[in-house]
Amino acid sequence: MSFSLLSLSLLFALLLSITLAVTLGSVEIRPGTVWKIALTHVPFVGERIEADWSRAQHTIIWEIRFPRVLLAAVVGAGLSVVGVTIQSLVRNSLADPYILGVSSGASVGATLVILFGAFSMYGQYALSAGAFLGSLVSILLIFSLSRLGGQNSTVRLLMAGIAISAVLSAITSLLIFAAPNEHGIRSVLFWMSGSLAGAKWEYLTIPTLVVVACLGVLLVQYRALNAMLMGEESASTLGVNTVRFRKLLLVITALLTGVIVAISGAIGFVGLMMPHIVRVIVGSDHRRVLPVSALLGAIFLIWADALARLSFAPEELPIGIITALCGGPFFIWLMLRSSYSFGGDGR
């Protein structure tokens, strides 16, 4: 299948997934009604559409399900893009924001907000601010630690990330242990497993802009990303300023992880699985890997979230449980594929 046909197929699958996911729930709604209601909010077009749905259906679709499904698409795309970025950065097929400790930093910030009311001056954005600042501090610590002694290599960066991740995870556990109330502990544990239940239209703008902007920057730099897969020395001989480029990748990783974790909690395995699947399908050229990973990640998380909210309705599973149940068997399958290697099959 050509790359253009694959991209069009994934775009169609994404649109179909959004439509079907919005219709799923305790109240039955036809697919046509979903887009009629959406179009009523488009200037000039909405006036020509005759309403054949109830006010309750309008509220359920427009205020609850639509923002949640779209947020799942944005978060899935962002996690996949950050997975591609960080695996190229450390040249390790098992790397993701959780291993480097970036999401652990976000968890510390969010835990301080939920349990102790930190950053209360930011009001409803306190959780986002706490998670983002936590991820930013962690990435700065990792980068500073990796440069100690005047050396700055990918191996030291990965080791620094693992060390910082362990320390920050311990701090989060300590904060939970010292929590003043049981309700706060339950909230933190649910948030740490990931959830899109709090999705609102006003929460979509910033994550969408950040994901699109970071994806655009990475696509412009796809040749440097391809060169980094061959090693820093090889990349340098090809004209890549590896020190400056690593800083750019670190900033993109911190920004994407902070924004996404702040809005959805810690959702693992998406950034780990999608790049591998995409490299098997389209090869290792980042001009193809990045957009296909974003589309596939969006589709995957839409259905993972639908399964999380419907499988035990009216109770809701943390979405991190669904992604972990998919991620474990996937890596066993990947391990058994003797032909697979990091960077795909060399195409």
Q: Roughly how many Å apart are the termini?
A: 14 Å
Query: What is the tally of beta strands?
Result: 0
* Percent range for β-strand residues: under 5%
The count of helical stretches stands at: 14
Q: Give the rounded overall mean pLDDT.
A: 81
Keywords: Cell membrane, Membrane, Transmembrane, Transmembrane helix, Transport
Subcellular location: Cell membrane
Membrane topology: Multi-pass membrane protein
Transmembrane segments: 69-86, 98-119, 125-145, 157-181, 201-220, 248-270, 290-310, 317-336
Gist?
The protein has 347 residues and is mainly α.
Describe this structure in words.
The protein has about 350 residues and is mostly helical. Mean pLDDT is about 80; it is low at about 345. The chain is globular. It starts with a helix and ends in an 11-residue tail after the last helix. Helix 4 (about 100-115) packs antiparallel against helix 5 (about 125-145), helix 4 packs parallel to helix 11 (about 240-265) and helix 5 packs across helix 6 (about 155-175). It has helices spanning about 5-25, 30-40, 55-90, 100-115, 125-145, 155-175, 180-190, 205-220, 220-230, 230-235, 240-265, 270-280, 285-310, 320-335.
Break the fold down into its secondary structure elements and pairings:
Layout: H1 3-23, H2 31-39, H3 55-90, H4 102-116, H5 126-146, H6 154-177, H7 182-192, H8 205-220, H9 222-228, H10 232-237, H11 242-264, H12 270-282, H13 286-310, H14 319-336
Helix pairs in contact: 1-3, 1-13, 3-8, 3-11, 3-12, 3-13, 4-5, 4-6, 4-7, 4-11, 5-6, 5-11, 8-11, 12-13, 13-14
